[in-house]
Amino acid sequence: MRLTGFQLKMFAMVVMVLDHVHQYIPNMPIWLTYVGRIVAPIFLYFVVEGFFYTRNRKKYLVRMFMWALIMKGGSLLVMFIVPPKGEGILNNIFLYFIYAFILLIALDRFMKNKTVINFIFVILATALSFLPEMMVFGTACIYSFYFFRNDKLKLAIAYPVAVIIANFLVFWPIMKGDIFTISGLLESYQWMMIFALPFILLYNGQRGYNATWAKYMFYVFYPAHIWILYLIGQYV
Predict the structure, then answer these.
(1) Mean pLDDT over residues 16-36, rounded?
(2) I want to staple 3 with a disulfide (CB 3.0 to 4.6 A). Which of 7, 84, 113, 219 is the partner?
(3) Predicted TM-score (pTM) of this structure
(4) Strand-pair partners of 203
(5) Is residue 133 scored above 60 in pLDDT?
């Protein structure tokens, strides 16, 4: 079985809802967020695909910036109307897409012209990509997908290794040897991002269904489902 880009994105969106149900609605089982670890890598893979196939990279960045502002503004409005019991809405994957795209631009410039300036640009862009919600994990995905997107065998090796190294770097200072216990593995669950790999390998390289509504569906669905789940969580 092979999957088109549309099918893979639809699958990821369904799993994303499960992940955010756990995040925003109290007393939901932890396995929902375990399953949800596959979502971000799938979408980041398509950010890399989009980087190579988009006709206008500047327009892509502007569009992501616009949606990041919509997400932030909408979240602030929702939390103003219904104040959060806890930390509120922090999610904004559009912002991370911007950081990821800047890192891709830096990598691409350096690979085409290996100058000191371009190398410094890569270092700065990599550091910048550590800042938002996905931190080093998203950066590990971007590097793996950029360098090995055309070699599935190398990707199948490099991606899990990159994710596991990222998990070790983040959680070892906190957990030390406990990271290798069953309870430690369940607590440091970001390593479960490796399970996105089989679905990425099923991608057939085709966009699939491409109606206008489908093209912009994620941009609308992502903030809308976050806001709805947040509101549900405040009343249960």
Answers:
(1) 96
(2) 7
(3) 0.93
(4) 3
(5) no
